[in-house]
Amino acid sequence: MRAPSPALVMSDAQREILESLAKSQTAAHREVTRAKALLLAADGLASTAVAYEVGAVLGGRCCGGAAVSEARSARRGRDGRA
């Protein structure tokens, strides 16, 4: 079994921006969904759980979580840790 990924680390300013975007009724649906996914990842949810929470599931298979994985990869590359 694979070890769980650590929670996505973000600053208070980043969280505030994402929370605003997640509540937006005028932003693109894709951006709202991505903001919600990143917030859930910052709260410690696993990528598959995040995908289910934001509705990125098709036919019982998870087809989302890419934003979370990309954000974690970018963070890892930027400061050398997860």
Write a structural description:
This protein is mostly helical. It has a two-stranded antiparallel ribbon with strand order 1-2. Helix 2 crosses helix 3. The longest helix has 14 residues. It is globular, with a radius of gyration of 13 Å.
SS elements, strand count? 2
* Shape label: globular
Stretches with pLDDT under 50, minimum 5 residues = none
The rounded Rg comes to 13 Å
List keywords for this structure.
mainly alpha, two-stranded antiparallel ribbon, 57% helix
Write the layout of secondary structure elements.
Elements lengths: L11 H12 L5 H14 L4 H7 L3 E2 L2 E2 L3 H14 L3
Antiparallel strand pairs: 1-2
Helix pairs in contact: 1-2, 2-3
Summary, kept brief:
The protein has helices at 12-23, 29-42, 47-53, 66-79; strands spanning 57-58, 61-62. It has one domain (12-77).
